[in-house]
Amino acid sequence: MTDALRYMSGFGGHFETEAVEGALPKGRNSPQRPAYGLYAEQLSGSPFTVPRHENRRSWLYRMRPTADHRPFTRYDGAKLFAPGTAKESLAPNRLRWDPPCDLPANADFVDGMVTMLANRRPEDLEGVAVHLYRASISMDRRVFVDADGELLILPQSGMLMIATEFGRLDVAPGSVALIPRGVKFRVEVEGESRGYVAENHGLPLRLPDLGPIGSNGLANPRDFETPVAWFEDIDDSTEVIQKSLGSLWTTTLDHSPLDVVAWHGNFAPYRYDLSRFNTIGSISFDHPDPSIFTLLTSPSDVPGRANADFVIFPPRWMVAEDTFRPPWFHRNVMSEAMGLIYGAYDAKAEGFQPGGLSLHNLMSGHGPDVESWRKASEAELKPAKIEGTMAFMVETCWPYLPTQFALDRAQPDYDNAWTGFPKAKLP
Ligand SMILES: O=C(O)Cc1cc(O)ccc1O
Ligand SMILES: [Fe+2]
Asked: So what's the pLDDT on residue 350?
């Protein structure tokens, strides 16, 4: 697809990179005349005045300023992308989906996006949406930009090459990519590709605090990879599709906006290989809260209550003694959307497939299905390795609402996962 792409290592670092020698100004951001007639442009990912550790911005040196564009008009395609959630009141049922067999065919990444779950409104600057995509063709002479939030892209099948204003990332199933709010990008595929996208309207995802875990563990900063500067010099019409305030808009430029020759700053795309996650769990007894598996978190205004936690369930050893080892039965004030990239999830013996989705909204009783419960209750508790699996959860304090597309396709019999438990026998 492309030559080996180059990356810089670290999470939230202050990077600098130039694709043409001398393009990046030294010692200042906005010289009177940037080199080669480039335009200096600041992209702010946080308000100017937030504390330093929350401050995110990058300076881009580009061939034309972003400001040079004609008015946007409504985009007619991608009818299933951000259509609004279902109108009817949502019953407090657990919901689960097989991978939908009717995701858009012959579509690119934008037209192949299908929103399943959402909460809040993008203009609240809080909340998260969960989309599925099916991309069969590469985006051709068009780019996408999301003003409503950052996009965490999780390929489930098919490799993606994502060309962004900051550089190019290749992302295979088992890795994830993060495109910050407001960054333009194009997705290229090599045949049919499917996956998930979590769109975060709130504070940018960051690494969780580690508390008593200490200074290493879970996702380590050095394993995040940000692309080096790359640009294309194309004087040909390029469509820009922008998601803004929950709707899709289009305008056409007479050039490619992926024309950033150099940049510096700490607001940039990155990718992360999920196999690098240093999974930590119980080495004594009991199954810890799943927060131990948090890879990235977007805080809300309430300390400890996430706007969105991105949590993964990777291969791991289970050694806890006198313990029911799979996820326990529970009811949660947070709302849990789960997907599966490959393998099987230890709480669900069947019905939760790679590419599928489940929703356990606030206070809904869930946990192991009957078969998983029986197996785990009867298992001999020798050390056992859960292998060949990668499930994930987007857990949020804002209850999710499904779209009509999602409601119409929910498994009709999901409740059966929990029927047939034998009643406890009292002495
Ligand atoms: O519901 C789920 O499967 C997710 C989950 C996993 C776990 O290990 C503990 C709690 C929890 O909600
Ligand atoms: Fe749960």
From this structure: 87
What single string gives the DSSP state of each residue in 54-73?
G--EEEEEESS-TT--PPPE
**166 Rama class: left (phi>0) / alpha (psi -120 to 50) / beta:** alpha
| Ligand 1 pocket, mutate which of 330, 334, 352 (most atoms under 8 A from CB) | 330
**Do residues 360 and 366 touch, judged by C-beta distance below 8 A?**
yes
pTM: 0.97
Ligand 1 neighbours (beta carbon < 6 A): 287, 290, 327, 330, 332, 336, 347, 360, 366, 393
Fold of the 70-258+269-274 domain: Jelly Rolls (2.60.120)
How distant, in Å, are the alpha carbons of 63, 258, 260, 261, 262 from that of 18?
13, 14, 9, 6, 4
**Per-residue pLDDT tens digits for 138-158:** 999 999 999 999 999 999 999
256 near 234, Cβ under 8 Å?
Answer: yes
Which residue ranges does the chain devote to CATH 2.60.120.10?
70-258+269-274, 277-411
| Fold type of domain 277-411 | Jelly Rolls (2.60.120)
Nearest alpha carbon to residue 175 among 192, 191, 196: 196
